[in-house]
Structure formats: structure tokens, C-alpha cells
Amino acid sequence: MGRKKIALIGGGQIGGVLVQLIALRQLGDVVLFDIVEDMPQGKTLDIAEAARVDGFDVSVTGTNSYKDIAGADLVVITAGLPRKPGMSRDDLLTTNAKIMKSVAEGVRDNAPNAIVIIISNPLDAMVTLFQKVSGFPTNRVMGQAGVLDSSRFSTFIAWELGVSVKDVNAMVLGGHGDTMVPLTRYANVNGIPVLEMLERKYKDKTKAGEVMNAMVERTKMAGGEVVKLLKTGSAFYSPASSAIAMVESILLDEKRLLPTCALLKGEFGVNGYYVGVPAVLGSNGVERVVELSLNDEEQAALDNSVNAVKKLVEDMDRLGF
Ligand code: TXD
After folding, report:
1. Where are the domains of the chain?
2. What is the pLDDT of residues 261-294, one digit of tens each?
3. Which of 38, 80, 234, 245 is least surrounded by Cβ atoms within 10 Å, i.e. has the fewest?
4. d(CA 189, ligand 1 centre) in Å
5. What DSSP element (H or E) covers 189?
């Protein structure tokens, strides 16, 4: 039988936390790849030497050779530059597209049967490029953004309402950029609409709407808020945890319904673009996209977000990727 093999491409901030989370949960053997010499070997040696105290048995190794990812069941890609204060995710397009092209070739040639989760920004464009270069079936290529954006939205709701975040369900659709679409109407606390709870709290519909809007805006800007505080890079603990939710759903065939950057084939009126939508994740990767009814305002916001993704993909085509 053997354990699952998980290859991580990119051994920076998110890559390092991913290794540790996978090891602690014993999800499989980990190979950490980076182009920086010795660094992935050093990080994984450090984590491996905690196995006795943490009590895990999986192997974690570092490499600078794509040959070592051979046979990987799952690949998670974080290779690429993060934002600096003042930058938008889209400013990373040219640099990270170059990196993603080489990564896609490396994965295609060495782990042709893997399911792939991409985290690198600008997310929706990088997932599109990976799929194009690798030629992998689209159910095996997806991106992580929505789990994180939704977790951020849920956190703000929990803080505002004074309830456990464990009881909050809120989802963010669309591209992973400033046009993302937090679904306010569907957000709930164990089934109770968040909007209703806000109206009861403030006894004023207008005020409740304003508070909801403020949470939506903070969610859209949440990545930038962390970048501004860190100054040297972007969020990495929460993006790693978010990817782990997807990794677990796939490796354990949980069939969780998670907001995923997946290829749309007509769903939500969109054809041929990767954007964040609810999807069932299991051992076949993206097993299906789940549609839900959107009102005119929500559909317009989603269309606007899809247009932003389209523009990035066109820019990438024009740059020759
Ligand atoms: O939710 C999300 N999707 C995201 C995405 C949330 C936060 C940050 N997100 C993006 O993830 C961010 O904008 C970056 O594009 C990636 C990785 O973020 P991280 O914080 O881990 O960046 P680091 O620490 O700079 O690590 C990137 C690593 C670094 O070690 C480089 O040496 C390596 O990528 N790198 C490469 N690895 C393999 N192959 C190539 N060509 C390569 N080039 C650089």
C-alpha cells in the first residue's frame, strides 16, 4: 500500500508551514522542492528532527531536483514571489508566470498523474497557465484562494457577533483579487442568517447593512492588511491551513464542498475560465462544481470578478505565456 506522496513546489513561507502541517497530521511523505540550494534540505531536516517530540512517522525531505517528486499523488505549488506593501496581486503576473511555466513543465514531466493545487499569485491566472502548460485534465488542476477568503470573512463575522467561528458558514466566490464576491445573503451562524443577527443586534436595517459592508470590504482587503503589517511578505499561516483543508478532502476522499478555483464549463454562465466556485473535492480532485442561485446583484458582482480574471489571462497571452 504505502503512504501517499505529497510534493511541495516552493519552500518559502507557505511551503515551510505546509510541510509542518502535513507532518503533524501524518497525511503522507513530503518532498519539498525549491530552486534555492540547500534551503529545502535545511527546512525539512529541521522539521524531521521534531518527529520524536511531535510523534509523527512520515518522511520529510528537501530537494533541488524535480526527479525526486516522481510518483507524487498530490502536488501543492507556492513557487513565486509574494507581494510587498503597495503591490496588488496582479503586479506579480510577469515574474510569477515565468516561474509557473517552469514549474508546470517540471511537474508534467516528473509527476504526470498528480492532482495539483496551486497557491501562487495572481491565483486564477497561475492556475490557468499551469493547466495550459501541463495539459493535465482539468479535474486534477485547481487553486486555493476561496477557502482562505471565506475563512477571513467568517473570522470577521464571528468577532462582530461574539460567536464561535466554528459555527459560522460564509463563502467567498470569484477571482482571488479585489473583485472577489463574499456572499452576504448566504452567510449564516448555524443556519441563522448573519444579516438577521446583525439587524437584531443593531435594531436598525441600515446600520446592519453598513456593518456587513464593512466586513465585506475588510475581507476583500484582508491580504493587503497582513502585507502592510508584515512589510516583508504576505500571509502564510492561513494560506497553508486553507490548502491543507483541500489536501485532506482529496487524500481522505472526504468530498467536502469547498470554495475552489476550478475550471467552469458553463456553470454560473461562465465558460472556459478558472474562478472560485463551490466544488466537491475528493480522490478525483474537483469532482463537481456546485451551482447556487444568485440574485442580479450577486451575478453582476461575479461577472465583474470573472472579467478581471479574463483580463489577466489575456495579458498573459499577450506576454506570450
Ligand atoms: O491564498 C492564496 N492563494 C495566497 C497566495 C495567499 C497568500 C500568498 N499567496 C501567494 O503564494 C504569494 O503571493 C506568492 O505568490 C506565493 C508564495 O508565497 P510565500 O509567502 O510562500 O512566498 P516566499 O516565501 O517568497 O516563497 C516562494 C518560494 C521561495 O522559496 C522561492 O525560492 C521559490 O518560491 N521559487 C521557486 N521554486 C521553484 N521553482 C522556481 N522557479 C522558483 N522561483 C522561486
Report:
1. 5-144, 145-321
2. 999 999 999 999 999 999 999 999 999 999 999 9
3. 38
4. 34
5. strand 188-189
